[in-house]
Amino acid sequence: GIAVELATDDGSAGHRGFVTDLLARRLDRGERPAKVVGCGPPAMLAALSRLVERFAVPCDLSLENHMACGFGACFSCVAPIRQPDGSVDLRRVCVEGPIFNAADVVWSRA
Q1: What is the pLDDT of residues 66-82, one digit of tens each?
Q2: DSSP secondary structure letters along 23-35
Q3: In what order do the strands lie in the sheet with 36-39?
Q4: Which of 109, 19, 21, 91 has its CA nearest to residue 101?
Q5: Rounded-to-integer distance, Cα 18 and Cα 97, Å
Q6: Which of 71-79's residues contact partners 24+ apart within 8 Å by CB, and which partners?
Q7: CA gap 56, 110 in Å, rounded
Q8: pTM of the entire structure?
Q9: pLDDT tens figures, 38-73
């Protein structure tokens, strides 16, 4: 089974604080998941990216950028994604995503 943990901002249910706190606690104890997946607001995904990078845990993120057309024609949903050669290209979340490797998302340019 899967252990479910709940985090709320005000502590009205489960852990009081961020969901990334719960993951950090597990990683600090030496637990190493095969992969972490995340979806949610950009600030949370950026924090998750930094956390999994620190512990060298693979992570996929589902980005939720605004999409005007949904077909890739308007380029309104682009995200800065690091390429294998180290360059950064804008990738269309609606067509080339929405799933990206956390290590490839360039949050400083998002």
Answers
A1: 999 999 999 999 999 99
A2: HHHHHHTT---S-
A3: 36-39, 59-62, 99-101
A4: 91
A5: 26
A6: 71/95, 72/96, 79/105, 79/110
A7: 22
A8: 0.91
A9: 999 999 999 999 999 999 999 999 999 999 999 999
